Amino acid sequence: MPSGRDQAGEQALANLSALAHFSSFGVHRQRLTELALSAAPATEGSLCVLGAGNCFDLDLETLASRYRALHLVDIDAQALRGTFARQNPATRERLFLHGPLDLSGLLDRIDRWSRFQVTPEELMNHGQLTAEQLCEQLQGPFDVVLSACVLSQMQLSVLNVLSERHRLFEAVRWTLNLTHFRTLAALTRPSGAALFVTDISSNLLHPMDALVPDSNHVALVRELARAQRVFDFADPDRLTALLRDDPLLRRAFPPFDLRDAWLWSNGPETQFLVYASELRRI
pTM of the entire structure? Predict the structure, then answer.
């Protein structure tokens, strides 16, 4: 059975396999960079990218012209070092690397949880404790925090270790979503912006070839969610309920809404439908 420790290695292998596909990220890179630029404060501020990895989805040189500090966070420290090495000297001066860092807070305990060695109190407290620890480690808060398709990577780790058949699977999956949005709330300063971006479907669930890559596909996101052809953890209705029902998140953020959606070609064969939501910290 896969273990929690194995998942960091799996992510490192995924980052290595993506190194040959920089060009295929073009539309995704443009849309994500534009999103981060649009949220930048009027004066030079700080941007924290959760799940930065190879950073093929961001134009760091352009972002460094608008932000005084770019904090790149990932579980794969080698990918972050490679990202740093590929930048020009002026951009490097504004980069701060944070890795390896497990944003889920789960990988050192999910094997124990899989054996039901967990209390209801530990599950209930995991989200806030993890968010507070990450904010301390990263020395937040920041003006803008970008969750760059990292929730799906963490949810995949839960699926790999527990499987859908495990009796705690749904509880742990919900706990991970809560943890991630509590982390966004903790890391984003008041009046700052938390940018949540996630892949929600793929060409394995719905044909993507006919889609215009640089169009706004929010309507398609909602259509596929209704048809249940999406990754259920990223269903906008589920996340709307999470932000509405959790007292801390309800106080931290406005109602969840979709701002943009686009097609992400991750190599020659894999395509994802991605959506973005901007949450202004109250």
Answer: 0.97
Q: Which of 220, 206, 209, 130 lies closest to 175 in space, CA to CA? A: 130
Cα 254 to Cα 73, 155, 188, 191, distances in angstroms: 25, 24, 13, 11
Comparing 103 with 4, the larger pLDDT belongs to 103
Question: Going from the N-terminus, what domains does the chain have, and what CATH number goes with each?
Answer: 4-280 (3.40.50.150)
Model confidence over 173-205: pLDDT tens digits? 999 999 999 999 999 999 999 999 999 999 999
pLDDT above 80 for 71: yes
Structure token pair of residue 178: 């809560």
- Burial group, residue 138, by CB count within 10 angstroms (0-12, 13-18, 19+): buried
Q: Locate 42 and state its tokens.
A: 């009027």
Residues 88-128 have pLDDT tens digits of 999 999 999 999 999 999 999 999 999 999 999 999 999 99
Judge residue 274's burial from the number of C-beta atoms within 10 Å of its C-beta, 0-12 exposed, 13-18 middle, 19 or more buried: buried
